[in-house]
Each structure stands twice: as structure tokens, then as C-alpha cells.
Amino acid sequence: MEWRTHLITGLTAGYLITGADVNSLLVAGVAALLPDIDHPNSYIGSKIPIIPSLIKITLGHRGPLHSISAAAFITLAVTIFGGPSLGIVAGVGYLAHILGDMLTPSGVPLLWPVLSKDIKLPLVKTGGLLERFVVFPGLCLGLMFLTVKLFFR
Ligand SMILES: [Zn+2]
Predict the structure, then answer these.
(1) Rounded to whole angstroms, how far apart are CA atoms 140 and 50?
(2) What is the pLDDT of residues 101-136, one digit of tens each?
(3) DSSP track, 111-134
(4) Residue 79: is it exposed, middle or buried by C-beta count within 10 angstroms (0-12/13-18/19+)?
(5) How close is the Cα of 147 to the center of ligand 1, in Å?
(6) How close is the Cα of 42 to the center of ligand 1, in Å?
(7) Which residue, 30, 43, 35, 41, is CA-closest to 102?
(8) Which terminus of the chain is less hemmed in, N or C, by CB atoms within 10 Å?
(9) Under a CB-based contact definition with an 8 Å cutoff, are residues 17 and 32 in contact?
(10) How far is the CA of 153 from the centre of ligand 1 (A)?
(11) pTM for the complete prediction?
């Protein structure tokens, strides 16, 4: 999936569990971009020097950082530094990214290190027509609907 799809997916997931709390949405949005720090040309990887290249060389793109284990680590780390509510939001945003990538032909090593095999349900090609003209706009409309609904309840 493209970075903007990951971002809107993370924001939507964060919104669904916390509502319109700005801090939580920021954490969910950043967490939803974080797994692609394993690639220097990704949106988040291009913002950080050296580290993404080192991660790509050692772990590979869509390697261990795209697993439930990594989501659990992020949840724990954010819980330690930001409390359990933000930890859960970060974990959910991170998982939203992983589940999105799982829907692409490349898949993700979801159960790493127990099982290194990529798990996939190849429904959406990254950057393809379905993602750009159905998935991304659909998620945007869904998030807008949730936001409008919040103001009129
Ligand atoms: Zn990814």
C-alpha cells in the first residue's frame, strides 16, 4: 500500500478506538507509517537519514518490522513512555499498516519469528487502480463520515 493509504487506515483505526482525540490520532497516524521505516525510499524512510538503509540491509523491506511481533514491541514501547491508552493506539495504527500490506501480492511475515513465510490475501496491488480509486477514497469518505457523525450526534 502507498503511504497515504497507510496513513488514512491508521487514522481510521485510531478514530474507531479513541474517537476524535487529536493526540491519539497523531500517534495512530505515525504508527501506521512506521513499518516502512525498513525502506529508505518510503515516505517515512526518506525523512530519516541512514537508519532505514541499515534496516533494509539487515532485515529487508517487509521483513520482521511487518509482523505482529513488531506491533507488540511498538505497543509496549509506547505504553512505557506514553501510557497504555497511547500504547494501544500505536499498536492498532501499526497493525493497520501490516494488515494493509497483507492485502497486497507481496504479503507480510505476519507471524515472524515463529513463521517467516509471507502471509497474503492479494486483493490490492500497491499503487494500483483499486488502491488509488477505490480503497483510498473509500477510507477518506469513511473517515469524513465518522467525523461528520461526531459533530451531529
Ligand atoms: Zn509496509
Answers:
(1) 33
(2) 999 999 999 999 999 999 999 999 999 999 999 999
(3) TTTT--SPB------TTSHHIIII
(4) middle
(5) 26
(6) 9
(7) 35
(8) C
(9) no
(10) 35
(11) 0.94
